[in-house]
Amino acid sequence: MSQWSQVQQLEIKFLEQVDQFYDDNFPMEIRHLLAQWIESQDWEAAANNEAMAMILLQNLIIQVDDQLDRVSQEKNLLLIHNLKRVRKLLQGKYHGNPMHIAVIISNCLREERRILAAASMPVQGPLEKSLQSSVVSERQRNVEHKVSAIKNSAQMTDQDVKYLEDLQEEFDFRYKTIQSLEQNDKNSTLIKQEMLALQSMLNSLDYKRKEVLNKIGRVIHEIDMLMSNMLTEELLDWKRRQQIACIGGPLHGGLDQLQNCFTLLAESLFQVRRQLEKLDELLTRLTYDGDPIPVQRPQLLEKVNFLLYNLFRNSFVVERQPCMPTHPQRPMVLKTLIQFTVKLRLLIKLPELNYQIRVKATIDNNRRFVLCGTHVKAMNMDESANGSLSVEFRHLQPKEMKTSAGSKGNEGPHMVTEELHSISFETQVCLYGLTINLETSSLPVVMISNVSQLPNAWASIIWYNLSTNDPQNLSFFNNPPAATLSQLLEVLSWQFSSYVGRGLNSEQLNMLAEKLMGQQVSYNDYQLSWAKFCKEHLPGKSFTFWVWLEAILDLIKKHILPLWIDGYVMGFVSKEKERILLKDKTPGTFLLRFSESNLGGITFTWVDQLENGDVTFHSVEPYNKGRLAALPFADILRDYKVIMADNVPENPLKYLYPDIPKDKAFGKHYSCQPNEVSKPSDGGGKGYVPSVFIPVSKILNDSTEPHSPSDLLPMSPSVYAVLREHLSPTAIETAVSCKLSPS
Predict the structure, then answer these.
(1) What digits encode the pLDDT tens for the residues 157-204?
(2) Alpha-carbon torsion, ordered 44, 49, 52, 58, to 10 deg
(3) Which domains does the chain have, with CATH numbers?
């Protein structure tokens, strides 16, 4: 079943979440019409590879054209209209930046997987629940409402300033008219009346000046309060959501909404600044005793400039954290001399700033690393599909500097994966007489020199972003805090949903909790140390919990991904639990679990019944990636044979737990249909007998312990038939019970 088909079967509350991230940037009708094709492409890799992204974009347009031809023949006018609109969108919006559509589709697919994983969980995890609280949603709506109200107030004040300007012009005209009269005329009764009227007009001017200044003051105060409270909280929440999304959590949205708020506030502040400049012009033409403008205007202008400085400083953010294109699901882990990408955005989107802001990227200030490649670029509105003012560095490389002794610091396999670094960015904004220096930094990154360090480096990234909101605590691992086990388990489930397409259910998470704690207790408030997670070996093992788990992720990704996505791999179940599950099942019922003693190993255990009615269990030696590279796991399950004491080979695997016929579960994943038994003369090229690999084990009925299988024996069904004709059962038994010598 395709991922999209699974999505369509979700409950309405989950479908509403899906609806939120499909918009005009990637219309849902395209996701629906091209579901299987979209899911078969590697959008994550294309998101960091421009050439690959361009090819996928062109292929996507071709797919849309094919659909357009089909619906044109069906004369579906509405769908024809929508597809033409989508085609125009794809060509016009993403042709100059194909990586953006790859990012959008990759994020949508990932978010679908996360929602599917969440739907399979009995309750929402604590982290996800905190990120989606109703309080946060209400604050978002309040911020947008207040920003809109402030913008309206600033525009209304514009009208008041214009009225004040008109009033002062009338006053100037009447005043100059009186001044132009002869001295004799000035003593007339009419002139005296005019002077009284002029005084009344001056009083009105004074009142209106005070009123305008008060209104400007209120607008400034409202902006100040909004920036100090709700807007700051919204920005911090977005940064926290970004942290969580980087380690596999829910897709972080809301940046476009923040950009709208920041931009409207900046426009309002610049509007207020122009109003204060207009008042200064009016002041030069007319002032009087008690005039409020010279007293209040300087203070208000100083406050406006202060707010603009703070608004611009907060608006400079890292939109997409540093990430190597080769490992798109492991952001913030950077390998020396390997390119990485990072994207920044200025949330104040003003046309005057397009191509006017040059951003410089640097790393740390300890002089251990330097950045090679293009590290100065101009922000612009042309590269982003949504027209945001942004800049993306695509060709940066970290390089470790040589020490004074002529050697490199920690270069090599022993580079410390708990050492945190920061990529910093600086620029300067010059606008309307203001000069504002801006700085921001990425979340802490871990430098590695060898890809073998990637798992432990990624563990550091997970632990940091799970445990702290501080975006720049580079000394975090000097004394890393403990993490709440319930939150850690939620993050571990995200690793599976984001990396291999299916998260973990409560039973699987319980098994991981027991493995971490060593006993079965409630883990809601249990605090787990960093050492327990990533540094201390598991009891009786030569590896840590994280190394064990990472090896399983790698095994799933490379060798059993379709089976895992279909939910047929129970995986995380202890030996004791698997026997409890199987003991009352039909003989031949089996389940698949990950090995606890072998890194990156998967095994299967089946239940059997002896002649006396006793139940027995058999587990095969775990298959690792080396063996699975030679034969697909689904084919192993199909072709697996055991030779019992009577020397009759048979496949003991009948039903996948709880009671799914094996071929029904795995049939679509078989690489080919098993070959029929044939004589040597019946097939094969150049006189050879066609062969297939068949996994064979030998089990003796009087054995109380399960035996490990022999290595995969290169025995075809036809060869086995020939052997039965020419060899005795004893000879065959001897052959299959002996391991082959390595070649």
Answers:
(1) 999 999 999 999 988 888 888 877 665 565 677 777 778 888 888 999
(2) 90
(3) 3-120 (1.10.532.10), 134-313 (1.20.1050.20), 324-401+416-449 (2.60.40.630), 506-669 (3.30.505.10)
